[in-house]
Amino acid sequence: MADDEETAKWDPVFTRQFKNLVGPLVQKYFRAEVNGLSALPSSGGALVVSNHSGGVLTPDVLIFAPAFYDAFGYDRPLYILAHYGVLMGPLGAVFSRAGGIEASRENAAKALHSGGVVLVFPGGDYDAFRPTRTANTIDFQGRTGYVRTALATDVPIVPVVSIGGQEAQLFLARGDRVAKRLGLHRIRLKALPLTFGVPFGLTTVLPPNLPLPTKIVMEVQQPIDVRARFGDDPDVDEVDAYVRGVMQAALDRLASKRRFPVLG
Fold first, then answer.
1. What does the mean pLDDT of the chain come to?
2. Who's near 111: CB < 8 A, 6+ residues apart?
3. In what residue span(s) does the Phospholipid/glycerol acyltransferase domain sit (predicted)?
4. Domains, the chain
5. What percent of the chain has pLDDT above 70?
6. What are the strands, taking DSSP E only, across 23-99?
7. Is the pLDDT of residue 188 over 50?
8. pTM
9. In what side-by-side order are the strands of the sheet with 100-102?
10. Three-state DSSP class for residue 138
């Protein structure tokens, strides 16, 4: 349910402190780059749509958010749509104060109407646990709710692509069939991955292996004004295909520049 409490939990003072503490550590560990932030609209709502990488300990938000605030300051919040389990966990209160809100169209619309920027990973855990062999494939599992949210709130879609995160460990299998058989879809979990890494070797979600210091590069693409490009009554699937096509082309270009796994 959307209400003022979800967006009101964002604390700019706390966010600045958290960013200054954690941001440099994450940036140095992953030698992270976020390029093209000038493409983001300088004011008003925008829906940032990104692929999701790295499994349980995904660094996507901890890389993108510090770069966003360095570029735009703290007058406009960055909200991150998250699985409710993340917000219920031991660090849920911390994440909420730093802009995390439960993933729903209602909450996204509330945040966008307030003038905030919303970061969404449409592929969710299905994307974050994709096998390393398909690391450079954009696949949202047919999820198109982000397009409907952009249309309902009349904000641009800003695609972002990330490369390198799926090299943080070896993702062997997504485990989506196993997850379905175990009924995990009832709690909105679509994957039960099999991974190999350090220090636990072969494991599933728990215990999580520590990520290798793989070089991660994120790149912001040009905003997409959906109605300007597709008309007043756009076909949602057509828009989704276009957005994913833009992202796939950008990811292919970044992949062609990457010389070695982990090293970048």
1. 95
2. 6, 7, 45, 77, 79, 101, 118
3. 46-165
4. 4-168+212-257 (3.40.1130)
5. 98
6. 33-35, 46-50, 78-82
7. yes
8. 0.94
9. 33-35, 217-220, 157-163, 46-50, 117-120, 78-82, 100-102
10. coil
